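Example 3.2
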Amino acid sequence: MNEPAASTPPGAARAQPLMSIGEVLGQLRVEFPDVTISKLRFLEAEGLVEPQRTAAGYRKYSWDDVARLRFVLTAQRDQYLPLRVIREQLAQWDAEDGPAPSRPTLVAVGPGGEVPGRSAPADQPVDSAQVRLGRSDLVARSGIDESTLGELERLGVLVSDPPGWYDGDALIIARAVAGLAAYGLEPRHLRGYRTAADREVGLFAQLVAPLVRQSDPAARARAAETARELVALSQQLHAALVRVGLRSTLGR
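Structure, written as tokens:
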């Protein structure tokens, strides 16, 4: 069985033989280098894609299946959407019984057109833990100055790991601090954010720890997805509570 070439247009490729999970992995890794077979199996277990099965039980994927996987992976990578929201969009796609969306026009949004959770900056890499920025780079890219960075570190709002290097989340924090500073908020005002975040970390860690302790790769993938969804839901809850709290001040 010959694998369809990566450059083959999807419309033409659907007439060709179905693909094995390894062949699908080769297709997706061009755009999503961190995807694994365990990840594909996890997405199947969550009902986001349903490959055909041979009599021997082997998975066989169509190009529509690959398009669904690209949709899911793009929504997670670029817009941090939880699986619940992605599943709703796929259900709508299935109900319309239309062709798979083309990759150039793929947009993942919430049911009302909003984007739940946070949106990653255009220059923010997917795995922020793998980003390594020097101190001067962080200052230059975030808009804060050296003294502010030192104060944030003293308060524990921002940390370097390993010492002297900063990851992608540190850049997000520094940029947010720079934006808040434009409205007059200083680092000392942000200590409560660190305290509240630590409380949430302790709470969420209790939920994902049982999955992390399992040796099954699928369980570890589920732990990562659970953490992602918890973060997205927490952000939505926090934003809604702040909006409600400001209504009286705004006279609404």
